[in-house]
User: Fold these one by one.
Assistant:
Number 1:
Amino acid sequence: MLEGLLTGLATAFTFTNIMMVVGGCLIGTFIGMLPGLGPMSIIAIMIPVAITIGDPSAALILLAGVYYGAVFGGSTSSILINAPGVASTVATSFDGYPLARKGQAGKALTVAAISSFAGGTIGAVLLMVFAPALASVALLFHSSEYFALMVVGLSAIAAFAGTGQVGKALLMTFLGLMMATVGEGVLFNMPRFTMGVMDLQSGFGFITLAMAMFALPEAIFLVLDPARSKTGDGSDGGKIKNLRITKDEARKITPVIGRQSLQGFFIGVLPGAGATIASFLGYAVERNIANKEEQEEFGKGSVKGIAAPESANNAACTGSFVPLLTLGIPGSGTTAILLGALIALNVSPGPRLMVDEPQIFWAVIISMYLGNLVLLILNLPLIPYIAKVLAVPRNYLIPFILFFTLMGAYIGQNNATELLLLVGFGICATLFRFADYPLAPLLIGFILGPLLENNFSRAMQLYDGVGFIWERPMTLGLLILAVVLVVLPGYRARRARLRAEGVADGD
Amino acid sequence: MALDRWLALVILLICLAYGYAAYFTMDALLPPIMQRSPIWPSSFPKVLAIGGILLSLSILLGLEKSPDKKDAADINLSRLHEYKVGQAVLLLGLMVAYALLLRPLGFLTSTFLFLTVGSYILGERRYVMMIVVAAIAAGTVWYLVDVVLGIFLSPFPSFLIGG
């Protein structure tokens, strides 16, 4: 591990890579603060830039920096104007905004920044310990286990993404997998489902799809509902004077940060759970275990109520890198986009990554420490100035968001058909959002599709048929787990409903 | 019928077409040498088609009860009449126009037009401000993408540079 760390240090501490961290965090914070652009959209916009850099370590460092920056920016806007730019910072606004209303915005921001820093750093330490261990186990896996593992990942994502609507989430996953089969795959050397359209030969662009699924519907909603784009007048920025917290408050939040960093990390590792669930759960747990008088404070500006979701969501962000870097399986929409970026950079994440290209893995970990440090010492003091971005009127903001989604899709593929696809898919995605279909499973299915088919085909060839499913106990076990994950929520919901109707009061 | 079931119907039709292609047309193109392989290009799509058809049917027939969650702050179809649908449609149209005009007009002109018309649609009427912002933005983005990142973006109309 020490050797790996040194490799990582050597890679990360070059001038370019430090600039990548600093630049990524700044850009992420800036854009993450704006309503309507979450980390997924920001990363998708930055991918063409990252690909142009060419060096995979630098590119991944930049994207990871953008990711933490965006999460941090999201918590800033939750605290200052009660408008979380990101779902994972909604819980931060419960106590952050009331505290800011009391004129203590600076304190709220400091607590958030320290908790994020601690959560991210503790997460990075855990990642450093657990990822190599998991990867060494994963090296024993064959293609049939990979196939099964991906099925588990996809079903976990579907089970978590659509609370009570697993069917819809699964359907979206299938739709994503089907879209992934369009074009000339690497496997068979023949075009499939292109309907004779030349521009579809290479399949749909994943950046186009990411933009269409996340950035565009969000922008359309901002247009549809002006009340959604609360942007404030930027004057709040001037009020952030005193960034200090008292010793007493520091003592209060320390155990919270410790607990929630651990809990958040492990939630983040699970596919499909991620930062949003970690932050809500962290908030709820801390409220429940707090003593009576502190419990009263929750929701009215408790520092514990800010520390809990902030350390949890940052630790979870870091945790979500574990399955990505060791198994090559993304657990969330954001890591799915990062996986797409890695594939575009000719890096195949998976257990071999740590053996073949250790410098990428370790550089990312070092960049996590650096990124958290940058957010704490550089971004926090700059917040009053960065907050001015909240004053950009929506008449200018929205055309720019739309323009950036167009640019992201165009630069990636360099053809105008891609832009028409973007608009078409964007309209579909908006309709899906209206009808409560979750979109992350579609994108994750799309990105995992080729890998899934690849491993499935290899296992089929090896065993000359589907025999691998029952001949390899591990594969069978994983596939059964996948079925349980999908069936269980529906079964429990049914039981709960029946019980509510008084039918099944037997237990 | 609620929107989610209409969408399930559309997805069902897509899955049927996809399944038809996978089961009945794809294998005809398969070279004989590949027919001995246990996996064909159509194998995986066949599985997907079945799954997609079953899942979309289950939603279409309402086998899964959707929980009644209505978060007032969230986007909601029942408030459609309050929404600015016209603006959204115009902006989407503007994006299509941008896609079609990007090559013929060149990056600088089409981006400038996109940004000015976009803020006009949203109700901005400070023309000088609009024009200045759009011009600076178009120029800066072109400089960053083309010169700094080195990704070619044809800046001028095609008739000026002969292609």
Number 2:
Amino acid sequence: MARPTSQLGLDRADVRQARTLARQVGKPIVDLATRHTTVSVERATLRLAGLGGADPDGTPWVNRLADVVRADVGLEHGVSLPVWDALLRGDADDLLTLAQKAAAGSVTFRVPEGKDATRAASASRKAVAAGIKQIDRQRIAREKMIAKVGDAPSKPWIYLIVATGDIHEDIPQAQAAAREGADVIAVIRSTGQSLLDFVPEGATREGFAGTYATQENFRLMRAALDETSRELGRYVRLTNYASGLCMPEIATLAGLERLDMMLNDSMYGILFRDINPIRTFVDQRFSRQIHARAGIIINTGEDNYLTTADAIEAAHTVTTSQLLNEYFAKEAGLEDWQLGLGHAFEIDPEVPDSFRLELAHAMLARELFPDAPLKWMPPTRHMTGDIFKGYLLDGFFNLVGALTGQGILLVGMMTEAVVTPWISDRDLALQNVRYVMNAAGKLHEDFRPAPDGFIANRAREVLGEAIGLLEEIKDDRSTPGQPPLLSAIADGTFGLMKRPPDKGRGLDGVARKAPDYYNPATEILEGQ
Amino acid sequence: MSLVRPYGDTTGDGMVQLSFTLPIEHSKVAEGAAVQLANKMGMDPALVVHAKPMGDGFTFFVVYGRVNHLVDPSTVEVVERDYPLLTPKEANAAIKRSLRRRLVVVGGCIGTDAHTVGIDAILNIKGFAGEKGLEYYRELKVVNLGAQVSVPQLVEAAREEKADAVLVSQVVTQRDAHLLNTREMSAAFREAYPAAKRPLLVVGGPRFDETMADELGVDRVFTRGTTPGEVASFIVHRLTSPRTPSSPATTTTEKAS
């Protein structure tokens, strides 16, 4: 299909160059990721093979088992060969029993060699394939259900958040939000879950400013929204967060329980949670491979840059990050329709022409990624507690969303920074969205920025700065022996935070793969 | 100053606006119930200017009305600023003059709080409200530990860096987490340091009450709208002026003029 010529007058050669640079910056990171594994990748593999549940203290069996394997033979071979070798040697009849025995100290693991290794590899592959088959079945179930009950009626999809901390409170709230018009429900995670090196188990009723992501919570919420989808005659999507130290495991659970969207940014954990960069990139790649397989749409977190840096000065860091996220996503097998690349309406409303600047930035994202849904995030920084002004700002945010064909619109609340949304806040926010979409939803058909006007010029300027930044990153050698992107992250290129590759949380859970490393999940996901 | 009433468009008219939701289907009875609530809150007469169903069994109301209450500004208790506001240049000069070394500030969000917006607004060079953050001050050494720092980590970092002041931001307030965390933090510092050596403890966040410093065991509580310059000025003032043995009063009752 021929693309319409650029409304912003972007030079195709510039766009190509930006993508080439993103690939040049990203490729060494992918190479680094393929040379390493992490505790969470290995635990995700065990989860795919069907190991779930937790011991009486709440420590998941995947953690107990992986920890013992690691203590016995190290992480560098992967857990699959030692675990299935033990099963084949008759140490236990199934994974759960093996995990229990291992936790009790009655099993010793070894790294099998020769024929034993071949047999262990093939047995592990069979077990893990069953989990991936379940993910495939869930993807088909989603497609069938959308065909049967219908899809969200229009774009952008209306994205609403629930966050009570109690899954049994979240469910009626999510169902009510769907009835009020939400196409996507996101259950915000409990503050701090990203730094847990295990996934909590079971239905949870307590959380801080959010609800724990657990397999059972996923299952309960998806079942409730299935019911509501049938009632409303449109499929209501469910979102959670594949981020933090357990990103690969949470992605796996999302695939198994048919979540539809996952927050999954390539650098967020590094910059904002001080998670080790190598850990993050390894976990990131595995989780994106799972999302690709599961037909899950990822949402990236570029909006976060603008909550710490100035939204005008840092506009090009958003573009740069979008380009990198796109590269990493596609390398992991995700397709354009799965890329909810993030951006946000965060320019200080006191700045002259702030709306035109917002429009320029949003149009740039739209033109650079024409087939990606794009996730449009509402103002938060300049929501001051003046709810009346905030309501107006949200209206202008919605208008930019309408004008630039955003795929996913996170509904802004006028009580941002005041309270977690009340029922009336949500209703008023949805009225705001509906008014703008009814009144101006098709305005993009008429609206063309002047070819050399303020908006087009600003968009070209931001693209130029993004290219400049990518070039700078490509040549960053400040951390010797590391890929340039790691050097750039170490010296504070993004979001003003400096994150060196040998620091940060979760580094002790990273291992360089040995020559005999084996992971059946990666093998299947990479189509070998 | 004299007693005052809310002002709509005429002195003394006492007009206020109010919005709320009642868990009842929209009906005439629901509107009557809204008026009743407003009356009980002291609005009389109360006029329901807007009523709209919101979801099943809920109605949202906007009510305008008159209240007869008088407020007396002379009895309002506030924490008045008891330190001079310094420009970054003046702050740097004061540190140089009195400490002859850089003043070390360690900051972070403690507990499970992941909202670094507050600490970053104060510490990051970017700053807040047009004022540069503490990182901008040449004579301040700023160590921002970021989010989800445990209290032991904070104490350890403070020792390691020989912190003169420790800044803690708390945004999440569910189940009073901000108060519990702050008390835990101040107790840990009291335990880890002899009283005279303890760094200055400063806590901030949108839901704190400024008058609670003593109760929380900290030297100062900052609340919504605090700028980096205020925090820097306070720290510099307290650490470069002769330290008084007893904790100075942080609450002053003052007639607003």
